[in-house]
Amino acid sequence: MNNTILSITIALIFGIGTFLMLRRDIVKVIIGLSLISHAVNLLIVSTGVFDGEKAPIISNGHHDSSSGIIFTDKLSDGIFAPIVPSGMEVHFVDPLVQALVLTAIVISLATTAFILILAYRIHEEYGTTDIRKLRRLRG
Amino acid sequence: MNIQEHLPILLVATPILMSALMIMLRSRPTFQKTLNIIVSASLLLMSIILLLQVWNSGIQVYEVGEWGKYGIMLVADLLGSGMVVLSSGISLLALIYSLDYIEGKSLNTTYHSLFNLLVAGLNGTFLTGDIFNMFVFFEILLLSSCGLVVASENGGVTKISDKMEATFKYLILNIIGSMLMLVAVASLYATVGTLNMADLSVKISALSDAGTLPWHIYFIALLFLIVFGNKAAIFPLHYWLPDVHPTAPSPISAMLSGVMIKVGAYGILRVYFLVFKDALFLLQPIIILLALITIAIGAIAAVGQKDVKRLLAYSSVSQIGYVFLGIGMGTAYALTASLVYLVNHAIAKSMLFLTSGGIIHHAGTRDMHQMGGMVKSAPLMSSMFLIGAMSIAGLPPLGGFIAKFVLFDAAMLGEYYLPLLIGFAFAVFTIFYMFRAWLLMFWGETRDSDKYGPYSSHGLSPMITVPIIILAAAVLILGVYSEPLIALSSEIANQLLDPQPYINAVLGGSVR
User: Fold this and answer.
1) Does the pLDDT at position A87 exceed 70?
2) Which of A102, B364, B442, B463 is deepest in the core (most CB within 10 A)?
3) How far apart are the first and last CA of chain B?
4) ipTM of predicted complex
């Protein structure tokens, strides 16, 4: 249930972002871009596991023998970690996706700051925020 | 401590540190310039040493933080280190050129810093072995190149509002490309559970052998085609390039057209031939089709241009199509041809953009119809532009001839007759539009030199002419003595088609 709501939310944010990016106003385009970047961030987080309450620290070796979860790859046997036996819930959150999302957030902060300043300078040069007026380059 | 082991990280870390240092040194412009040239030259030296090391003793892997395949790895194989040599060489020459070309105020404040970030982004993209890290370096490349496009040049030929407009288009389109790349990377991670490219390759081929390859892997591969096609300006995504490359100052145009659009070709080569080699059968016809349309559109649009840099930009669109044609054919010989083409086009096109900067400096305008008869007043620029035009058009004895010859030979051997025919037809177009530009600018009536801008009397300093002459010499040498480049390219092509040494080198050390 949770996953369905999450997927619909991500899809809605993508949709709203795309809609805003097709507007004429530069500021709306920029808001659309940052909405899309938020949607992507949500998508990345959602690839980790959500239901966990424990910190992702493997304490007792590579095999959690009590639960049967396998954490290491063994390609000769065709094992891709992590493998969770059926009927078991995973109580770990994947820490890597959170690191990825932090990086992505910082990057989208930098690009948004740059593009807002660029929009301000465009407003100064052209005297408009209508994106259809930005067509001096052609040929 | 053995310094040679640390070359991959030094090639990335030095320019990043320098970019911070250059901001602090902005009150001492002379020291800043000297330091930047020394750093750039030493980066070129380091990259050549790295290439020689990789050539002699195999793929070199550098684990940042010693996390094994779970952390970031820098992998210097022949493709990556070769691209680093190419980009370091062009960036050193472009930097020397820009010291006299860029306006003093813009040069002393942020230019050096952003230029170093651009170099760091290029080196990082070519050396990284981690697909998310590649995204991060793409963003570094994007933001630093945006800052460099709006840098103003001496004489003010390009209006600042044009630069703003071009940068806005470039930024919006490339951010969308980056978002798509993030979506693709996240889906890949959710499917396979790793981000290391060698590990991805092993796991995807294991899944494929077991017959359980999920169907959405093909969609992820297509998303990567959009991402890298956007970087390389392939047909449906090419329309930002003719706005951005001409409005940038000439040394930056040389960097963008010479190296930045090759990043897309590099990404296709790296990601497709390593990670998605099981999906290649589906992608190669698409790449060939897009490459042919790109060749046609670029060449046809270049014929009608009156702005010299816009013509060169459309020519870049057309020429990158030839590189992708070789990638699409996908045999070892075709990949060799495509790499030879890539190197030759990078050198010839960056030289042409630097030369066009000299021409604009002399004439004070970018409109070719207002120039004319400059063969007398600017003999050096006319001969250099002729060399570049001949190389792009593929006339012997210059590098472009060897590149086109090898590519068409590969198409003939691979029995791709229709692509060969189309490619050949538009190679004739290339000759036409390059020589039309040369005739318009350098022959015909001599215009009154009073009409030329205020900088025509300034003359061309050695800082502008020497990089152009070095690149022209490289174009000529690659045409006359091309065996080393072809040998290197065919070795790279073999490594691409058989990624097992790469995978062994990357995954061999990690026992966690």
Assistant:
1) no
2) B442
3) 25
4) 0.86
